[in-house]
Fold this protein.
Amino acid sequence: MAEASGRPKPRDIPADVRVRVRIFLGLLIGLLVTYALIIGIGGVVLGSLARILLLGLILAVSLGIRRTSRGPALVVVGLVAAAIVATALATVFAGPTVLSILTASATILLVSAMAALIVRFLVGVARVDFATVLGVLCIYLLLALFFASLHQIGGALVSGYLLGTAQPPTAGDCLYFSVITMATVGYGDIIPGTNLARMLAVLEALVGQLYLVSIVAAVVGGWRARRQGARRG
């Protein structure tokens, strides 16, 4: 039946492609778990450390997407270790504002490193496959985390940055606002309260929509066309 439908059998798929699909599925699930953790316990002190530990683990896993030389791999390991140690120290010794800013800054660094590894792989692919589709979806989730961290820093530094939340807004509030902004849902329960928040919200909405209608649409379209071509063949 598999040959008649033109679909490749699992054993016909190259081993490296199967490995990358597993890695990207792991990254996607890990990022969704991170979302749940931030929304659920992002406002708890230990939630900051748990968030950085989980993102550090996901970043370490992302090294397996494509063979990485020892130098860049050591840089990534050092970045993860520094982020975890700094967050742990801030959890014990720093106040809530410093902890919030440091956690958000560490998240930006880890998310940016993860996105760079994924983009490095995507740029070098010769054809669109399921791993490529998962990769562009991971980038979308990373973008929302990136902007959520910027909102968290803004909320910690600027009074009234977001309206409809506690002051300052929690990490969960910022992620929720980031996702509904990028998805252009606009429930209206949390809104920008300053010009800085409005500027970042507009930028995030534009980036999110342009990414969906260009990159994601092109990759998914190429993947579907390849599958349809395989069935005809």
